[in-house]
Design goal:
Oligomer: single chain
Structural class: alpha+beta
Number of strands: 30
């Protein structure tokens, strides 16, 4: 396991001496690859050939690039010099770090190595200048570090196992503190990449705080890295791959026998599974591919769906472009497991509104997504007592995801899907109705908010405050949806109040932001975006595919939006920055679009055109079914409902979101449990849901 330790050490240098001069040549810069005497540049191979050390000059390089079958010398010159030198013992003494004798000649090595060192230094200077220039031009988003953010505030992050849809979410296993791994050694002066063993001090999602072996209680060189990165390996990988293990320069003189130290320290310790990197790679393979066609909610009219084409896939998140968009800028972001997307023909199969495309036939290369790729909803029995039109319930407002509102079932579809409208703010033509499945965690029985001490938003214009369901049902002549029809399952999700994570801003679903869990009601999570006011919080299901572990953006290459700074928030309007969330029961209305801190840029793809807009009436073909698509069973999620648009950029021209704008579903997940008097913590299992009755 530890054989790789002897393959390279920091005492092996490229310094040389000659009979005319004993002055040593400066070693090559540590950030450069190995440069051989013939001017060729070598780096570590991807195979298992390993490294070698020239027995004549001490040069360290790739074994395959060395001269002769034995791979003992880096060049023909070194081989001949070694053979013609009668003082081999003196040469070996020099290679072991002892002063060489003056008779131990290295034929014309010093001038050549000196030139190579000068050239290498020049190249290093150019690289540093390029890095500095690139760093200065980078946006301030790059300056955010999860490690520094967590360390400086003693935060904790939600475990990877909480996110079943994320890479490694179902096979994270027992990765925890004190697990040992092999990582690149950055405290090293060698000109090649070498490795050393480190232990996990703290975990934060995919990120781990590491400490090199040998430092014991010294935290001066502790560093954060992503466990799923390509340079992270289980103990024993270096030996199997022919990579050198080199102790950090700071502690290299602490022990005389590092191999014995490692054997003692690592015996009985845990490390990553041998196939860990393979599992990471497999978990990041996604079945959705560009050019696949899907049905997705129309962001301008929530009550209907449209055909869209997958433009790109990043970490399982899809950038969908509506099929009629000629310039391919009319797009929509969602996860591949989102309840907002369905297979072609889904709308017709359940009786959902569908906007027929003006395109009469598929474009070349486009093909329908196989139905089995979509998330499945629970089967329900609609033959007995079931939801009916006009029944009242409580639902998350898709245009104001921080609120739960009084709502009404407007239409009952097939396969357990319901069309729901928010009382007091519905359009006359029903264009702002939104589709939920009966098992959706975004709908609740009457009385849910009261029992769980959540503020319920009454209908707009309703004046009899405080709002009481008993009076409202009597005044409207309505009945409440039966409690037993709602989903009451609560998984053991593992979230705790205060945990950090990365969350999609469902009001602007292309943005993923630094966020915190602030409340937990059974399976319902209150997500707060760090640096922003509470009015921008969102209710999200614990199994929502729009929540990710810390480090997900770094792992997948998605851009993370850091917490808003105070100066950024102060640039908002005076009324907005001074406004505090009122604890009244008045209708809050549609909130303004969120601003994004100055200098923070969203994903470098076209943004969602979700501003303003006048409500359009439905044309005849909007009620028609799609072209000749075959009828297939209902698909994906446990609801169907889209995220409203709220930009985090500072755009003074942005207007208040109107009812004609897109409503998007916040919560996707599955079951839900209602426990009387539950506090802001995880509640597992099911129990009787108590509704307060009044005479």
């Amino acid at each position: 396991m530890f054989d790789g330790y002897d393959s390279c050490s920091e005492d092996t240098s490229s310094s040389s001496s000659s009979e005319e001069s004993e002055e040593e040549v400066a070693p090559l810069p540590s950030n450069l690859p190995i440069i051989k005497n013939n001017g060729q540049v070598y780096t570590y191979p991807d195979g298992k050939s390993g490294m070698a050390t020239c027995e004549m000059c001490g040069m360290v390089g790739v074994r395959d690039a060395f001269y002769s079958k034995t791979k003992r010398f880096c060049s023909v010159s070194c081989s001949r010099s070694y053979s013609s030198n009668s003082k081999k013992a003196s040469i070996l003494a020099r290679l072991q770090g002892k002063p060489p004798t003056k008779k131990a000649k290295v034929l014309q090595k010093q001038p050549l190595v000196a030139k190579l060192a000068a050239y290498a230094q020049y190249q290093a200077t150019l690289q540093n200048q390029a890095k500095t220039k690139a760093g200065n031009s980078a946006v301030s988003v790059e300056g955010f570090s999860w490690g520094n953010y967590i360390n400086s505030n003693s935060f904790i992050a939600a475990p990877v196992a909480c996110f079943k849809h994320a890479p490694m979410g179902t096979c994270w296993g027992d990765i925890s503190e004190n697990v040992r791994i092999e990582v690149p050694n950055t405290d090293c002066s060698l000109p090649t990449k070498v490795f050393w063993i480190a232990g996990i001090i703290k975990l934060a999602g995919y990120n781990a705080l590491l400490r090199y072996e040998g430092f014991e209680n010294d935290s001066s060189l502790d560093f954060w890295c992503n466990i799923c990165g390509s340079d992270i390996h289980p103990v024993g990988w270096c030996a199997a791959s022919g990579k050198p293990l080199v102790p950090p320069r700071t502690v290299q003189h602490k022990y005389t026998n590092w191999k014995a130290f490692l054997v003692k320290r690592l015996t009985g310790a845990k490390t990553l599974p041998p196939d860990f990197s393979q599992k990471v790679s497999e978990s990041m393979q996604y079945p959705f591919k560009p050019c696949m066609r899907v049905e997705v909610v129309d962001k301008r009219h929530l009550c209907r769906t449209r055909v869209a084409v997958v433009e790109s896939v990043i970490g399982g998140r899809l950038r969908l472009v509506y099929e009629e968009s000629e310039d391919r800028t009319d797009d929509f972001w969602c996860h591949m497991h989102s309840p907002l997307i369905h297979h072609i023909g889904w709308s017709r199969s359940i009786g959902h509104r569908f906007k027929r495309s003006d395109i009469t036939k598929k474009q070349d290369g486009h093909f329908d997504t196989p139905p089995h790729l979509f998330a499945k909803v629970k089967e329900v029995d609609q033959s007995g007592e079931w939801f009916k039109e006009g029944m009242k319930l409580e639902a998350i407002d898709p245009l104001n995801l921080s609120t739960i509102c009084v709502a009404t079932i407007r239409k009952v579809l097939a396969d357990g899907f319901l069309m729901i409208g928010i009382d007091g703010s519905e359009a006359a033509d029903g264009s702002d109705w939104f589709c939920y499945h009966a098992t959706s965690p975004s709908i609740f029985p009457v009385g849910f908010c009261e029992i769980n001490m959540i503020e319920l938003t009454p209908p707009r214009g309703y004046t009899k405050l405080p709002f009481k369901w008993f009076d409202y049902l009597r005044e409207t002549g309505s009945i409440a949806a039966p409690v037993k029809l709602f989903n009451k399952d609560v998984p053991n999700h593992g979230f705790r109040v205060g945990m950090k994570l990365e969350a999609v801003d469902l009001m602007e679903p292309r943005l993923i932001c630094v966020a915190t869990v602030t409340r937990i009601i059974h399976r319902l999570l209150r997500i707060h975006f760090d640096g922003w006011e509470e009015e921008y919080d969102q209710w999200v299901d614990c199994e929502s595919p729009d929540l990710y572990p810390v480090g997900w953006c770094q792992l997948t290459g998605y851009q993370l939006q850091p917490p808003a700074s105070q100066s950024s928030r102060e640039s908002q309007s005076a009324s907005s920055k001074q406004k505090k969330k009122a604890k009244s029961q008045q209708y809050k209305g549609h909130k303004k679009k969120r601003k994004m801190p100055v200098g923070k840029k969203p994903v470098s793809l076209s943004s969602l055109p979700m501003t303003g807009g006048v409500r359009r009436s439905f044309s005849g073909d909007e009620e028609l079914t799609p072209p000749p698509y075959r009828t297939l069973p209902a698909q994906t999620a446990l609801e169907a409902f889209p995220p409203p648009s709220t930009s985090r950029e500072f755009r003074p021209s942005l207007k208040t979101v109107t009812t004609s704008q897109l409503k998007e579903e916040l919560l996707d997940g599955e079951d839900y449990s209602f426990l009387q008097g539950a506090s802001d913590q995880e509640s597992n299992g099911s129990a009787t849901f108590y509704i307060k009755q009044e005479p």
